[in-house]
Here is the input.
Amino acid sequence: MGEELPSTWHSYAYNGNKILKKTNWYIMSCSDDSLMKPQAEEYIEEVRWMTPQEALGVLDEAYASIALVVRHYLGETSGKESAKEPAKEK
Here is the structure.
């Protein structure tokens, strides 16, 4: 495991109870992605690699907590405080 990224919190319902869950995020590398697959029971529909620009382009559709972690990571790797979505051409 690599460097720690910001932690996030989210809530969900389980057996009629509201649960608050903390998620710890880390920078990691993958040497073999042949067994990666979506986790249907968590409503994850697709698993795929993206370039940083592709990732920034879809963050508006992501949960806010995931967008925070991705922007933090992309900002760290580019030497900036935080990554912002690039301006779109008109």
Remarks:
- The first strand starts at residue 8 and ends at 14.
